[in-house]
Design brief:
Helix content is 37%, strand content 17%. It is α/β, with parallel strands linked by helices and 244 residues long. Helix 7 links the parallel strand 5 and strand 6. Helix 1 packs across helix 7 and helix 3 packs across helix 4. The N and C termini lie far apart (41 Å).
Length: 244
């Protein structure tokens, strides 16, 4: 018989705690597949901060470090500088990276730290109750914007990838999505490139932003959440390579 599927070795046998339709499980799978294909599991260290991905160590069978909210780039910086032979990546949500951790990610990119950042953008605070995040769209309803985000009062969605792309220390920035199979494949290719740049000791930080569904706090069925990414979210966060 021809083998058409094999379990991803870097994924642990662990029941998911994510909500139905959440994109984190897909993103975990892509990171694990890339680690397997590159043969770097034994030298990889992941950094997971507070947020929906705080239990990433339950799923990814590599060394993992759990850190305070927003501080993953700072810890990744110290980890890489003291262990230059290791492959260091952070796995962060938008409430973490684009809010309390804004300074950390901008300055890590500004310094050109040799790390890989996987940035999951679902436009809302997931773990703490569905509050407005920096990436929440104008008009989007959240628990703290029941009438929709008002740009006159709460400003506009923060485009982290565009901000980092102008910094010389960021060598690769790409925005991808998980809303259909074709884009899932593109996301995996971007994640793989980001890791390959670190393996090659390329001088700088790589970030892959991933638009991901949150059906629970978008108040949508999973299929409708995927359509919302395509029809609304991408208007504010265009897909593609911003640098690299």
């Amino acid at each position: 018989m021809i083998k058409v599927f094999e379990k991803t070795k870097t994924l642990k046998e662990h029941p998911t705690h994510y909500c139905p339709g959440c994109g984190h499980g897909i993103a975990h799978r892509l990171v694990a597949e890339v680690i397997d294909e590159l043969g770097i599991a034994e030298r990889t260290i992941g950094i997971a901060p507070v947020g929906c991905a705080v239990l990433a160590y339950d799923y990814l069978d590599v060394d993992m470090v759990e850190v305070a909210h927003g501080r993953a780039p700072a810890v990744a910086t110290g980890m890489k500088r003291t262990n230059p032979d290791k492959i260091i990546f952070s796995y962060q949500g938008d409430g973490d990276l684009a809010s309390i951790g804004t300074a950390e990610i901008i300055h890590a990119a500004h310094r050109g730290e040799h790390i890989t950042v996987i940035f999951i953008n679902n436009a809302v605070y997931g773990m703490t109750g569905g509050q407005m995040a920096p990436t929440t769209l104008v008009g989007q309803v959240t628990t703290t914007t029941p009438k929709g985000r008002d740009s006159a009062e709460q400003g506009f969605p923060l485009q982290i990838s565009e901000l980092l792309a102008v910094l010389p220390g960021a060598i690769y920035v790409e925005r991808c999505s998980l809303h259909n199979p074709a884009n899932v494949r593109k996301t995996k290719a971007a994640v793989k490139k980001a890791f390959e740049l670190q393996i090659a000791d390329a001088p700088g930080l790589s970030l892959v932003e991933v638009l991901s569904p949150c059906p629970t706090y978008w108040r949508k069925e999973p299929i409708e959440a995927l359509k919302w990414i395509d029809q609304e979210m991408i208007k504010n966060f265009p897909l593609g390579v911003l640098k690299g």
